[in-house]
Amino acid sequence: MNEPSQVELEPAFAKELFGSNISLARVYTALLAKDSETFGLLGPRELPQLWSRHVISGGLLAELVEPGQKVVDVGSGAGLPGIPMAIAAPNSHFTLVEPMERRANWLSAAVTELGLENVSVVRARAEDVHRTDFDIATARAVAALDKLIRLLSPLIRGSSGKTVLALKGSKAPEEIIAATERLELLGFDTPEILTLGLNKAPETATVVRIRLKA
Questions:
Q1: Is residue 163 classed exposed, middle or buried when 0-12, 13-18 and 19+ CB atoms within 10 A define those classes?
Q2: Domain locations along the chain
Q3: Rounded to the nearest 10 degrees, how much is the dihedral formed by the CA atoms of 39, 40, 41, 47?
Q4: How confident is the model at residue 5 (pLDDT cuts 50, 70, 90)?
Q5: How far is 62 from 77, CA to CA, in rounded Å?
């Protein structure tokens, strides 16, 4: 019988990132560790890097959000990156969009338990969310960039922010090349590849930031 995976101890950087809301990040991480298997949120192999690769990685994106902006996290699943972003950026509003019922129910329960008044949960596919006023649309592990921008661009087209933040890994440059034609067709500016948390976080986060032309 396999030994249960040990949950990663909280890295020192977590307190720096989440500040006075570190207790919420701790509760969220504990909920993820407890419920991941039951709700199909994260695999057991992810528990030893739960803080570094998931919670902190998501929270790092908050530095790209301005106070008062409206953010939509598409295919939110376990609330990543939306919930850590919301904890780290309490003065912005986050909408978590998740099509699977059990995950959407878990998200709603988690948001209630955490008392996150700046977070809403919508059970839907991205294509069925008929809003265009989100300043930022984000997603993690949902689709390759070429497909992702098709899903996200309608959600930001009517806002002043008009920004996509796609959490990607080492293949971000290749995904950008593959999406070049689509980016031009939809009216996006040249993508930026940002490395967040460098020399600070236990793991950096690679983010592709793309803005729609005004």
A1: buried
A2: 13-211
A3: 110
A4: low
A5: 18
Distances (CA, A) of 74 to 11, 13, 148, 199: 27, 27, 10, 29
205/197 Cα distance (integer angstroms): 7
Number of H helices, E strands in the chain: 8, 7
Give 145's pLDDT tier (boundaries 50, 70, 90).
Answer: very high
Residue for token pair 């709700």: 39
For the full predicted model, state whether its pTM sits above 0.85: yes
pLDDT band at 4 (very low <50, low <70, confident <90, very high): very low
Tokens of 10: 């909280």
13-211, which class in CATH?
Answer: alpha beta
